[in-house]
Amino acid sequence: MKIEDEFKELDLIFPIINGKVSIAINRKLYRNFKKEGLDITPEQWTVLSFLWKEDGITQQVLCDATFKDKPSMTRLIDNLVKQKLVYRKTPPTDRRANLIYLTEAGHSIQERAEVAVYDTMKYALAGIDEKGIEEVRRLLKIVFDNLKESL
């Protein structure tokens, strides 16, 4: 296969991997969050979902876990603070760090958010059997790991 032919195939694959699927899933998530009465974004959900697993972690841990830069994470947390879903606390041992904790309101929306995410993924993955889902997961992990190493 000529290099030009390989690039033509990549031109078809790249937009799908890069954005179309992500945009479509985010749109569906927005709709499902609203259907559940939640005023959160998919990006905010990624932060909240980590805090539901481990509350009281640093902004840097959240940056690493969500693959976001510090300014983006600061804006995300600022908005979650305004919505009274999280709060910052400075530990006495390291005044440079901020620990991020869920508020009662942040804890209270977990189940509705999980329903919205489950419904979104169920819809997105309809018609794909478990073997296919595992293969997609495996391939996307390889793509992500390849890119992560180069950054």
Oligomeric nature of the chains = single chain
Structural class: mainly alpha
What's the alpha carbon Rg, rounded to whole Å? 18 Å
Helix and strand sequence: HHEHHEEHHH
Number of helices: 7
What does this 3D model show about the protein?
With 151 residues, the protein is mainly alpha-helical. It contains seven helices and three strands. The protein has a three-stranded antiparallel β-sheet with strand order 1-3-2. Helix 1 (3-35) packs antiparallel against helix 6 (110-124) and helix 3 (59-66) packs across helix 4 (70-82). The protein is globular and about 55 Å long.
Short description:
The protein is mostly helical and about 150 residues long. The chain is built from 7 helices and 3 strands, in the order ααβααββααα. The chain has a 3-stranded antiparallel β-sheet.
List the keywords.
2 domains, three-stranded antiparallel β-sheet, 151 residues, mainly alpha, Arc Repressor Mutant, subunit A
SSE layout:
Elements: H1 3-35, H2 42-53, E1 57-58, H3 59-66, H4 70-82, E2 86-89, E3 99-102, H5 104-108, H6 110-124, H7 130-150
Antiparallel strand pairs: 1-3, 2-3
